[in-house]
Amino acid sequence: MLAHRPQYPVPAVRSLPVAALVAVALSVTACGGDGPMAPMDQEAPMDQPASLDVTGALVTSQRILFTSYRNGQYDIYKMDPAGQNVVRLTTSPASESEAAWSFDNKRVALVRPRVNAANQTWRDIYIVNADGSNGHWARPTAPANFELSHPSWSPDGSKLAVSMSLNGVYYVSYLILATGQLSAYSTGYGGLPGTWPTYTKSGQIVYLGPTRKTVNRINGDGSGNKILFTSTLSMVQPTLSPDGTKLLFVRLIDDLFNSEIFLKNLSTGTTTKLTSSPAPDMMPTWSPDGSRIAFMSGRTGIGQVWTMSPTGGSLTRITHTATAEGGPSWSH
Questions:
Q1: What pTM, to 2 d.p., does this model score?
Q2: Rg of the chain over CA atoms, in angstroms?
Q3: Which CATH superfamily is domain 13-330 in?
Q4: How far apart are CA 329 and CA 107, in angstroms?
Q5: Tens digit of pLDDT for each residue in 32-65?
């Protein structure tokens, strides 16, 4: 049975290796109970979510970026971890998404459509200050035949790791901000296939492998490629915890395109299913100390931002609007 068509923010659908997983954010959700569950890796029991507001204990200087449709277009906003003190950062009529904090929390990279000289529109990377000022493109010219997504800042703020889509293939790439130079990491035989790259505090990059069944790590110069985790099923949106010991990822779990958030403990090898609802749960992001996870959920019929503990408990809704909210990114 299919329910009404809920609204969820657009996290740049074309950039996903499994487009159907996020396309559901604009289409349908299940009603009634959970759909049939796909087989999983070893799974630990999930804590039962409690209706507890624990965000008050978090440092108030922390901010969560998110995408919102509350003004009739997808813009980037920021708020504190309790969902208060909301500030709008962008006002462009173009749909913006995938906002990411620099490690010093002074700048924000985001994805915005850009028209090139041939009047073609491709997604590119746009930069603003933390207060929304000084908006500018990260590159001097618009893409000619490719598009960029999933920006992540290097610890020193000099580069962005990005996904580059070229002829239907995604490559792990980097963008030098001082010059606008864009390059794909090399395998020695061509570009490094993969997507969803994110920098760690140590300057390494974690990314989703081309089969969508591995999470890999490379050094900042592209060397030392290592598989951190192999899954029997496809994943998207891998996110390493600040201490590097736990990995969040999103997995499609039923025929109605429902998705849930999982946690892989890299030390013990245990996989835990953190969310359970008949609507999509996706886009997880860690708090700086690893004590909370913000994510987008459609469990109320419309995409909203929630937080939970790393065990899936203490579930707290932090946006309360009648329009789509999602794509959270927690400050460092």
A1: 0.85
A2: 18
A3: TolB, C-terminal domain (2.120.10.30)
A4: 13
A5: 332 222 333 333 333 333 333 444 444 458 999 9
